[in-house]
Amino acid sequence: MAGPIILETIAALRAWRSERRAAGKRIGLVPTMGALHAGHLSLVTGVKQAADEAVVSIFVNPTQFAPTEDFSKYPRTFDRDVKLLAEVGAEAVFAPHVQDMYPSGFATTVSLDGPAKVGLEDAFRPTHFAGVATVVTKLLLQALPDVAIFGEKDFQQLAVIRRFVRDLDIPSEILGGTTIRETDGLALSSRNVYLSPEERAVAPTIYRVLQEAAELVRKRQPLDRIEIEAAQALAAAGFAVDYVAIRDALSLAPPYAAADPKRLRLLVAAKLGKTRLIDNIAAV
Ligand code: PAF
User: Ligand 1: distance of its center to the CA of 31 in Å?
Assistant: First the structure.
């Protein structure tokens, strides 16, 4: 099985992309930070339903980590990642160096509002989305893909990306990929490797609590009470809860009390020991 071509510079990516476009191929981009799991691989499969060839970027982006966060210990498994990408038929891997993405004197940041400022992840990671938006803007402009895909697991991130891509007229279609879960319901995440065996056993509680809360939303129970009770259930299981929120699925703003459950998304962020987990599901 031929593996993907490895592109280490922006010039190499652009040359590959021009050559494939000249050959009439639609290009799909899958931005990742590596440490790939089945969730990422499903994004490759997903983008290839809308494009002929997939380029997967692997770049642990320093600007989206706060100084207190896990940038230095974020798992880096490049050789294994490339093997997995060969198995799902990715055509190219873009693995730029930090100094190429952020050359000395780099001074530009994408500034955000709207879904980036709704008091969810932004309340706990205030510099995170500016870093994500800046690197994703760069990746989209470097690869100029016809389509790019991001996992729904990071639901606020997906909403933020959709909004700035629209606002900045970046000519790529943005797709969302369904969250892939372990059999016990835990959403796949590169950070799950940080969980101790005891924490790993408790972690699926998030999905169970989300499902129970969604059931209450469908029964039209008061949304604020559902949020409080879900947060209490997580705290009782040992989580330090950052938020449990029921939001409008498009704007991520708090919904009207009588909002149609079909428009609602339930979102959770909570820490188990030192590991911060996020998850979300649709109410219907
Ligand atoms: O979701 C991620 O893995 C990252 O935030 C992304 C989109 C690759 C940007 O670094």
Answer: 6
**Neighbouring C-alpha atoms within 13 Å toward the C-beta of 14:** 6
Cβ–ligand 1 distance for 31 under 6 Å, the answer yes
Which atom of ligand 1 is nearest the CA belonging to 190? 3
- pLDDT of the residue at 163: 98
Residues forming CATH 3.40.50.620 domain(s) in the chain = 5-177
72 is written with which tokens?
A: 């230095």
For residue 2, the model assigns a pLDDT of 84
Domain 5-177: CATH superfamily is HUPs (3.40.50.620)
The band of 224, judged by pLDDT with boundaries at 50, 70 and 90, is very high
d(CA 95, CA 13): 9
Is residue 1 very low, low, confident or very high in pLDDT (cuts 50, 70, 90)? low
Cβ 209 under 6 angstroms from ligand 1 = no
Region 56-63: what's the mean pLDDT?
98
Q: What is the pTM of this model?
A: 0.97
Residues of the chain with CATH 3.30.1300.10: 190-282
3-state helix, strand, coil in the chain (%, to 5): 40, 20, 40
Which atom from ligand 1 is nearest to the alpha carbon of 60?
10
| Contacts of 249-256 spanning 24+ positions with Cβ under 8 A | 249/282, 250/159, 251/114, 251/115, 251/118, 251/159, 252/115, 252/118, 252/120, 252/155, 252/156, 252/159, 253/118, 255/223
The CATH architecture to which 190-282 belongs is 2-Layer Sandwich (3.30)
40 is annotated as an active-site residue: yes
List Cα–Cα distances, 223 to 51, 120, 220, 227, 281, in angstroms.
Answer: 40, 16, 8, 6, 15
Q: What is the mean pLDDT of residues 192-203?
A: 98
